[in-house]
């Protein structure tokens, strides 16, 4: 990892400056590149800035042609279709580094599934006081309708989108466990497609592990958890509909797996079985990969005004007549206050130390942590425990006094709702910046995709490297000005 | 004593209902003090009823229709045998033991469903009311009797001032309400003291001069450590006895609403309920 | 196939067809009004356009005068008019989008491109380029899309549903077009304007259905009222005759096989009976009461459309 090579004089990298106390994925220090990036740098060295702009353009066209867009809706409800900004410089992960990461992600998700099963059954971990019971029962995502339900194969989080970052010490840290409805995997596959089209020679010069088997793997996982005694399960993808910002991904996955894409209004429950309305009459459905949030899945039980769900489906689920992926109520384990207990959870169920690091987390609910947070706002990141997508986050560095005060008040008013973490210095990666006409370091993270089926664990070899395109910014979410890179995991 | 209970609901809709799923919890349950001898349900749509047990183990029914309709009637008739409720015989703990027990982790884990701060029952810990603190030398059962009488004084029984969406906090502000509001306030207060309480729906003996006999009634059951569940009716300032015919219980009204539905229609609708209880 | 998706395919077909007929009718009338043989009043043409599209009453709610710029704007691009060409294409595309998983990417891209053209066509463009240009391009785009429908899809239930929608809509539109011309001709007769104008009106009518050349080849004479009506209503080989389209509806329904049995109350039975009736009809039987015949036919087509959706495509 620390093998550095010196780089030939090269105009597009001339002004590249690695920030202080920051780990750069490509360059160790000025002019010295990491070994596995050497071929990329040599390849890019042959290009002029103009060539790059051309390549960039052609990649963009590739996305438009593939139709990889997300819709942004304004007042008049006419969607403007945009592409998720894509950067041509691939992020490369060496095999050894990946191996550990993959093991760590699987270990974490196995433990989380055991944890969820325990929470909705015997609650041993609470009785043993490893995780505080109050914390669980006060979580907005603890779902009492899951009590006593045993999903097929004991799997709750069939699809997990674990987010990681690399800190200045060169180590990976888990940032979030996204185990509700993680999205973005279609970008991983489309990025790869665009990369192969635009930089085929460079791609061929590396042994990159494939990502395009994801739909097959997902289908296998989905079919493996069909209700008992169903031989040829009918599986569907449930989408909130075409006005959802991730609709493209829903169609992409359904098509990739060759299964129907349905909406709530296509399904109904009759005598505790789920059916879809087809032109030849009702057809039984056995497994639903749902991209609709827990609260909306059954208007009979949760939000009564929801038109996205299927009334009565929770009773069918309770009876084991339908499988839902992910299971409802998984959100209790990616609550950011529960996050701080994941290493303890791993230890409790698996008797192992966590392979991947957790970021130290201050739970504002605890008096001493609360005091520390109040006194050190400028050095912390404050997050609401039950949000995802980068919403409602406070970053201490360079924050105004006014904003600090606002967050202090918000925290004090509801201490259970907030946690704080030290500001992690996300690693940077060379990224082509149009305005600067050169490569500049930008902060990145990595979302991995882990699938769990009956006797099956699979981590997509790569994942989504998200880039904060704004200089110095640490927020990589697509909804907040982030872009993405293709992520190459090299064969050994 | 035997009771004949008739529950009737009539719904009319301005526009055609194209698709509907109704769910109802109106049938009395079987437990130590009561036994259902006969129960029949008829509906105007002529659709079959799908029976199932809800999360709390109570019988519920569902009716699904895809033929357009503008009105929907449902009638339940039930013959119920009710025995005297036996007073608990096991030994109560002393107040010190009780209070140590109810703050323990295991107690929270065992009873968390009935200690939850739910939408209907949640009261802010700083709600300015008497009886909010359980005194050190007071037993839980004594506290609950006091609370029952106290909650009764907080509201004036008045129909149509609150509805099925009113929360305990809102009713407290209004100072008026019906059985459901009394029950929610009782639950909210007792849960702040770590006493598990559940919401109960059912019917009342019509011959007693109780409030709430014309409709389904609501009361509560509180958990006495080492003893079990005991019923209180803050609306009538009474302990629930053999005049209380239970249908189901849950964390709050949302778990016990007599009938609800998810419908495809536009326009207004009107609902009327009738309850008739006859002592046989 | 999901009923909702089937519904989308059905309506995609209908909206595409509706846009095409509206565009062609406007185009043909616009051109023909330029070289009308007699002093045909402009209002007469505009009224005819509005009546064919069924928008006369709605238009008059928002406008006091019949001005050609207003009428073309209203029919072509007005978003407040639910059946303007712009809204039809917009709806066709939304329906296609919902069913994208079953379409070829070539077809989807063609519809999308069509949509972008229509959607970007502004009032200013209409003023500068005129309605003729817009409607001509619309007709052409429709032909391209139809080509992709026939040549890039499997001829399975997806295709059959689009076709069912198209032929129901086409049967309806053709009936309306003939109807509105028959009314025009009735007015002319009252004014006693002679044979030249009858011929002129028949030519316009045939052109509105892109039927002029084929009809000439078929009859080898100048169009008159009788042969024009026979061609557009009863010809079995011409794809825009009413008879042809009812036969296509019958075939599409049979291909889809929704009904398990075609008993006498089924839609399939009704359609089969309607098709048989028109197949063995002669022009002499209806010549004298053509207006009534068309009205009855239109009701039958509407009945078929409504019941197809209600019986098989509701969700």
Description:
The complex is a heterotrimer of chains A (492), B (280) and C (315). Chain A has 14 helices and 27 strands. With 492 residues, chain A is of the alpha+beta class. Among the domains of chain A are: 217 residues, Rossmann fold (3-Layer(aba) Sandwich); 63 residues, 2-Layer Sandwich (Dna Ligase, domain 1), CATH 3.30.1490.270. In chain A, helix 2 crosses helix 6, helix 3 crosses helix 12 and helix 8 crosses helix 9. In chain B, helix 3 crosses helix 5. With 315 residues, chain C is mainly alpha-helical. Chain C has 2 domains: 153 residues, no CATH class; 144 residues, no CATH class. In chain C, helix 1 runs antiparallel to helix 2, helix 8 runs antiparallel to helix 12 and helix 8 packs antiparallel against helix 15. The longest helix of chain C is centred in the middle third of the chain and has 35 residues. At the A-B interface, helix 5 and strand 12 of A face strand 2 and helix 2 of B.
Do you know the CATH architecture of the domain at 98-174 and 211-350 in chain A? Answer: 3-Layer(aba) Sandwich
Strand tally of chain C, please? 0
Instruction: Provide the gyration radius of chain A in Å.
Output: 23 Å
Q: Count the beta strands of chain A.
A: 27
Q: What radius of gyration of chain C results from the CA coordinates?
A: 19 Å
Number of helices of chain A: 14
Major protein interface: A-B, 24 and 20 residues
What composes the largest sheet of chain A? 8 strands, mixed
The N- and C-terminal alpha carbons of chain A lie at a distance of: 14 Å
Kindly name the structural category of chain C. Answer: mainly alpha
């Amino acid at each position: 990892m620390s093998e550095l090579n010196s780089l030939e004089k090269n105009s597009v990298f001339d002004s590249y400056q690695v920030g202080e106390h920051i780990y750069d994925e490509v360059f160790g220090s000025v002019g010295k590149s990491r070994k596995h990036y050497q071929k990329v740098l040599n390849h890019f060295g042959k290009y002029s800035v103009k060539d790059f702009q051309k390549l960039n353009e052609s990649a963009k066209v590739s996305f438009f042609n593939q139709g990889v867009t997300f819709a942004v809706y304004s007042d008049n409800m006419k969607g403007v279709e945009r592409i998720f900004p894509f950067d041509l410089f691939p992020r490369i992960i060496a095999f050894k580094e990946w191996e550990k990461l993959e093991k760590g992600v699987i270990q974490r998700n196995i433990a989380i599934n055991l944890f969820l099963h325990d929470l909705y059954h015997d609650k041993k971990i609470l009785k043993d006081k490893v995780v505080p019971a109050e914390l669980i029962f006060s979580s907005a995502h603890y779902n009492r309708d899951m009590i006593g339900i045993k999903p097929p194969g004991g799997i709750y989080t069939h699809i997990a989108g674990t987010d990681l970052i690399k800190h200045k010490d060169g180590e990976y840290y888990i940032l979030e466990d996204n185990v509700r409805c993680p999205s973005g995997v279609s970008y991983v596959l489309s990025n790869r497609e665009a990369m192969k089209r635009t930089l085929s020679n460079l791609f061929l010069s590396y042994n990159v592990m494939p990502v395009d088997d994801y739909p097959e793997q997902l289908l296998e996982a989905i079919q493996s958890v069909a209700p008992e005694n169903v031989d040829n399960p009918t599986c569907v993808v449930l989408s909130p509909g075409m006005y959802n910002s991730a609709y493209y991904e829903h169609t992409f996955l359904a098509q990739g797996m060759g299964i129907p894409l349905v909406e709530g209004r296509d399904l109904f429950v009759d005598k505790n079985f789920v059916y879809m309305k087809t032109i030849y009459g009702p057809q039984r459905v056995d497994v639903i990969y749902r991209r609709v949030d827990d609260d909306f899945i059954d208007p009979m039980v949760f939000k009564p005004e929801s038109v996205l769900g299927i009334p009565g489906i929770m009773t069918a689920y309770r009876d084991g007549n339908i499988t839902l992926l992910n299971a409802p109520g998984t959100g209790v384990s990616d609550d950011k206050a529960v996050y701080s207990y994941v290493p303890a959870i791993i230890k409790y169920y698996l008797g192992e130390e966590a392979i991947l690091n957790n970021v130290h987390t201050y739970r504002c609910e605890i008096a001493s942590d609360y005091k520390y947070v109040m006194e050190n706002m400028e050095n912390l990141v404050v997050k609401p425990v039950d949000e995802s997508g980068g919403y409602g986050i406070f970053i201490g560095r360079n924050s105004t006094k006014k904003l600090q005060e606002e967050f202090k008040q918000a925290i004090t008013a509801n201490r259970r709702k907030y946690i704080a973490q030290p500001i992690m210095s996300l690693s940077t990666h060379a990224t082509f910046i149009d305005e600067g006409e050169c490569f500049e370091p930008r902060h990145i993270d990595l979302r991995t995709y882990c699938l769990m089926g009956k006797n099956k664990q699979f981590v997509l070899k790569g994942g989504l490297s998200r880039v904060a395109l704004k200089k110095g910014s640490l927020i990589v979410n697509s909804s907040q000005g982030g872009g993405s890179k293709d992520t190459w995991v090299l064969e050994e | 004593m035997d009771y004949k209970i008739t529950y009737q609901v009539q719904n009319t809709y301005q526009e055609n209902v194209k698709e509907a799923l109704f769910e109802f919890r109106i049938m009395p349950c079987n437990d130590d003090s009561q036994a259902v001898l006969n129960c029949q349900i008829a509906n105007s749509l002529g659709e079959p009823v799908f029976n199932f047990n809800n999360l709390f183990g109570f019988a519920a029914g569902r009716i699904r229709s895809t033929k357009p309709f503008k009105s929907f009637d449902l009638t339940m008739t039930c013959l119920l045998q009710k025995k005297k409720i036996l007073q608990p015989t096991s030994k109560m703990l002393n107040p010190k033991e009780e209070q140590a027990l109810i703050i323990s982790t295991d107690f929270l884990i065992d009873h968390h469903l009935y200690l939850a701060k739910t939408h209907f029952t949640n009261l802010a810990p700083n709600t300015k009311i008497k009886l909010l603190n359980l005194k050190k030398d007071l037993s839980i059962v004594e506290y609950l009797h006091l609370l029952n009488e106290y909650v009764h004084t907080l509201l004036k029984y008045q129909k149509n001032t609150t509805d099925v969406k009113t929360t305990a906090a809102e009713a407290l502000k209004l100072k008026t309400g019906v059985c459901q509001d009394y029950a929610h306030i009782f639950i909210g207060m007792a849960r702040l003291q770590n006493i598990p309480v559940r919401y109960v729906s059912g019917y009342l003996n019509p011959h007693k001069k109780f409030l709430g006999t014309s409709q389904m009634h609501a009361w509560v059951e509180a958990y006495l450590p080492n003893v079990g569940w005991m019923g209180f009716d803050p609306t009538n300032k009474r302990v629930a006895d053999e005049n209380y015919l239970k249908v189901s219980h849950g964390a709050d009204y949302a778990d016990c609403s007599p009938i609800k539905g998810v419908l495809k229609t536009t326009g207004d609708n009107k609902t009327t309920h009738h309850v008739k209880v006859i002592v046989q | 196939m999901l009923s909702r998706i089937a519904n989308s395919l059905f309506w995609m077909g209908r909206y595409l067809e509706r846009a095409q007929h509206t565009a062609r009718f406007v185009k043909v009338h616009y051109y023909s009004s330029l070289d009308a043989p007699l002093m045909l009043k402009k209002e007469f043409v505009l009224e005819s356009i509005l009546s064919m599209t069924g928008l006369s009453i709605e238009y008059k709610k928002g406008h006091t005068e019949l001005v050609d710029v207003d009428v073309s704007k209203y029919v072509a691009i007005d978003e407040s008019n639910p059946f303007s060409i712009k809204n039809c294409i917009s709806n066709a595309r939304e329906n296609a989008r919902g069913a994208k998983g079953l379409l070829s990417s070539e077809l989807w891209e063609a519809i999308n491109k069509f949509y972008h053209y229509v959607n970007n066509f502004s009032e200013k463009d209409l003023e500068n380029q005129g309605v003729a240009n817009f409607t001509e391009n619309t007709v052409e785009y429709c032909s391209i899309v139809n080509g992709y429908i026939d040549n890039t899809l499997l001829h399975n239930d997806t295709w059959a549903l689009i076709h069912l929608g198209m032929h129901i809509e086409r049967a309806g539109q053709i009936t309306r077009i003939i109807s509105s011309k028959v009314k025009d001709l009735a007015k002319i007769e009252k004014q006693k304007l002679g044979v030249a104008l009858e011929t002129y009106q028949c030519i316009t009518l045939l052109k509105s259905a892109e039927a002029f050349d084929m009809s000439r080849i078929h009859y080898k004479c100048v169009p008159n009222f009788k042969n024009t009506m026979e061609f557009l209503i009863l010809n079995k080989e011409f794809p825009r005759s009413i008879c042809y389209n009812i036969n296509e509806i019958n075939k599409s329904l049979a291909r889809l096989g929704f009904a398990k049995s075609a008993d006498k109350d089924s839609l399939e039975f009704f359609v089969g009976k309607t098709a048989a009736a028109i197949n063995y009809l002669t022009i002499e039987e209806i010549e004298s009461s053509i207006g009534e015949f068309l009205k009855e036919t239109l009701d039958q087509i509407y009945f078929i459309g409504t019941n197809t959706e209600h019986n098989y495509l509701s969700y």
